[in-house]
Structure formats: structure tokens, C-alpha cells
Write the C-alpha cells for this entry.
Amino acid sequence: MSIEDGPRLFADDEAIRHVGRGLLDRSLPKEQWTHEAHLAACLWIVTERPEIDPGREMRAIISGYNLAVGGVNDDHGGYHDSITHCFIAGVRNWLARCRATSLVDRVNGLLLAPEGRRDWPLDFYSRERLFSVEARRTRIEPDLKPFPRADTEY
């Protein structure tokens, strides 16, 4: 399946939990750490791991995972703080309006929603600002429009 065909959807709740647990314990094979896996893990953490604060802890979680699978976290690759925070806001925004109750339906709905698009952060950031070293290293505010702020228990 090519990117143009749309996102790779998940078969069931356990497939999503497998990704989330693999991220946390750093056992997920690197080739499975896709855009879809990033969003699935984030939604799983937000909804099923209340002891984890994604806004504070996602940097360490993803950076540690990247290093464990032989990746880097530098000025050109690996963890990107502004993109991560943008997608956390997107997950919360999606959950505020999502009516699905199963994990798989929530995640697959997110992947098909605007917040699930790979380029969704470019709705908020200019390309130059988003792909700057500063945006990779630290969360910076969008320069086009603010993230949606969902009123939700998540």
C-alpha cells in the first residue's frame, strides 16, 4: 500500500496495545514505528495509561525508544518536540468529538480524520518554522494558527 492509498488501519485493539507496549518497553521493531503507530500509541497512552502525562513524558518515551532501536535524536532526525505536541493536541481534539467506544475504532477514526494526516501540523506551522532546529528541540508556538483546544477528560 502506498501513502497515497491512505493510512494503514489497525485490525483490533490488541494490535494497538502491542504498539503502545512496544514503545514503552522499547521492544517494538523499528520498521513498525510508522506514522500510524505514533498516533495509535499516543491515543492509547491518552486513553488507557492515565499515569502517563503525554505532554511531559512523550519526549523521554520517544527519544529513549529511538535510541534503543539504533536511531538518533539530533538536530536533523529523531524526536521532534513541536510535531509531537501538535499531534497530542490533535489526538485530544479527535477524542473530544469521537463517539466510538472501542480502541480500534477510535484509532482508525483518528487515522482517517484531518488530525491523522501526516501533514496536519502544516495547518498550524509554516514549513520553515516547523522544520527548524528550534521546533525539533523544543515546543514552539505555531505561526499560522493555534492548535485546537478540546474540552475533554483526556
Q: What stands out?
A: The two ends are 32 Å apart (CA to CA).
